[in-house]
Amino acid sequence: MSALSPVQKQTNKVADATITDQDTINGYSGSISYSMTASDNGTASGTIVYNSYKSYANAPLIDGSVNFSATYNTSTASLSSFRMTFVNVTASTGTESVTLAGTLAISGTESTITTTITMTLTDNVTHKTYGMSNYQLVMTQSASGISMTLSGTYYDPVHGYVVISTVSPVTTSYASGVPDSGVLLFTGSNGTRARLTFTSTGYVVEADSGTGTFVVVP
Question: Quick check: helix, strand or coil at residue 209?
């Protein structure tokens, strides 16, 4: 018998096993429907749809959908990345109603986790929209404690925008549980800035109104 060609060998490989699941869950009112697919190659994805859903009588009424995807370690079943996309998810209760749209992504290892958010929140009563663009929180664990960096832009419909950056990582020891060092900088328009400095005895807030000089805020 002649040997199999490379193409035949490839097509004779066992395909990745795939698991699919879908269901509809009824709430106090409305329902949640979901569908998902997971493969033994370490990927998963799916969609959750909220249809006028309430979990109990006084809970918010939720409408909209969320798409998600993930990668995971097939040996340990631990997530290495997870991403959610909110497609005009509206939550309403009493006289309040807000709509979320955007993405939230989490990735990393056991020692370092990165969370990235690009999202808008619209107040459907006042018709004001708040937003975060490429807001990133990186948390790193070590033997002594946790180190954190922040970056990104926050948008406010009244006060404008502020760019967040980390001058030096904010650190917290396991013993204290509160920030004991690090500097965060918040930059606005026209050269305005605010600086938040953490120390072992507390924190200091300084402001620069555009003169180039920081002044301690009492």
Answer: coil
Map tokens 């800035």 to a residue: 193
- How far from chain centre, in Å, is Cα 164? 16
Q: What's the longest Cα–Cα distance across the chain?
A: 88
How many Cα atoms sit within 13 Å of 45 on the Cβ side? Answer: 5
Radius of gyration of the chain (CA): 24
Reading the block at residue 172, the tokens are: 């917290």
What are the tokens at 103? Answer: 């993405």
Q: How many helices (H) and strands (E) does the chain have?
A: 1, 14
pLDDT digit string, tens, across residues 164-195:
999 999 999 988 889 999 999 999 988 899 99
pLDDT of residue 76: 75
- For 179-196, letters b (16+ CB in 10 Å) and e give bbbbbbbbbeeeeebbbb
Tokens at 158, concatenated: 């009244």
Q: Residue 116 pLDDT more than 80?
A: yes
